[in-house]
Design goal:
Helix content: 40-55%
CATH architecture of the largest domain: 3-Layer(aba) Sandwich
CATH topology of the largest domain: D-Maltodextrin-Binding Protein, domain 2
């Protein structure tokens, strides 16, 4: 009897079906990649948790303007001040994780607020870091011609009499930095709160408050007007923006340093390819000489980074300021 050779056809069919499945997967992958490349296809909202006109707002606008050109879409600045940045952070955290909402994430939101409040209207991991962008050097400012207008005079007074220090918001970099210095010097210092640095600075310039740690946008109008004087910088090294100011370590305070900083974050769940594209384009923007020159004019220094480094940096800042907050007994409701 003749045997019919039919067994090979089903095997061949299986192979053909397998090849077809692979082809479909490749096609699906190509479509997904195409969709990812198409981002962004509409304007992007950039949430700033501060009022217009301050250093964070101005630096956001400088960076966003250049990023808009790179991405080919408008970027709309959405100022959401209030609640020590909680209002803006909540608005960003609750947005769709589709790459069309980004958040200017500063020290206060990412490393201070989580340690000041027992409960927040968003989860602790609701915002995903993208990359650090800038830092804002802080400077020890006093009344020009006043009793504290040199570091030796300041240190002598701090060790012998009560002093008042102005803060532009509870839990701000200037607030916690002052608490850190107070602890270092074992001094009697009391905080006098204001809503913002620009409101606090005139009180120091007139001598009604002993000192404050201010950024250059808040300090320079009073320094240039002869009413205030910068006697030190809080950074680890002297600032290129004001190199004549010694560091606190150089001035005899001790080995402490701090500043305030900001980067970009997105709602949790934003696709990683979008996060990667943002990080890539933002670091290009920060490297641009024209952008750096504009930032320097408002007293801001570029701080290029990566998602991994920024995430690690935020964790280290959390630990640092948690210790200061606990030692100072600061708690907000």
């Amino acid at each position: 009897m003749t045997k019919m050779k039919t067994v090979g056809w089903p095997r061949r069919a299986v192979r053909l079906l397998g090849m077809a499945a692979v082809a479909l997967q490749l096609a699906a992958g190509a479509m997904t990649a195409s969709a990812q490349v198409a981002w962004p296809s509409k304007p992007i909202r950039w949430v700033v948790p501060y009022t217009p006109g301050g250093g964070t707002d101005q630096s956001s606008r400088i960076i966003a303007e250049k990023l808009s050109v790179a991405l080919g879409q408008p970027i709309v600045i959405d100022n959401r001040p209030g609640g020590n940045t909680v209002i803006g952070a909540a608005a960003a955290a609750s947005a769709a994780p589709d790459g069309y909402t980004v958040f200017f994430a500063a020290l206060s939101t990412m490393a201070v607020i989580p340690n000041l409040y027992d409960k927040l209207p968003y989860a602790s991991d609701a915002l995903t870091p993208v990359t650090q962008l800038v830092h804002f050097p802080l400077f020890l400012m006093v009344e020009a011609g006043g009793p504290l207008d040199t570091m030796p005079k300041f240190l002598a007074a701090a060790r012998s009499q009560p002093l008042l220090f102005a803060i532009g918001g509870s839990g701000s970099g200037g607030h916690l930095g002052s608490e850190l210095m107070k602890r270092q010097l074992k001094a009697d210092m009391t905080a006098v709160p204001f809503k913002a640095m620009v409101q606090a600075a005139p009180e120091v310039a007139t001598g009604r408050v002993s000192f404050m740690f201010a950024d250059l946008p808040a300090a320079l109008p009073h320094v240039q007007g002869g009413r205030a004087k910068i006697i030190a910088t809080a950074g680890k090294t002297r600032s290129a923006l004001y190199p004549e100011a010694p560091t606190l370590a150089e001035a005899g305070v001790g080995e402490i340093d701090f500043d305030t900083w900001a980067g970009l974050a997105v709602p949790k769940g934003t696709p990683q390819p979008i996060v990667d594209r943002l990080a890539l384009e933002l670091n290009k923007v920060i490297a641009d000489p024209a952008v750096r020159a504009k930032l320097a004019l408002i007293g801001v220094e570029p701080a290029p980074s990566s998602q991994a480094r920024f995430t690690e940096f935020i964790a280290s800042e959390n630990a640092k300021w948690r210790a200061v907050i606990q030692a100072a007994g600061i708690k907000l409701e």
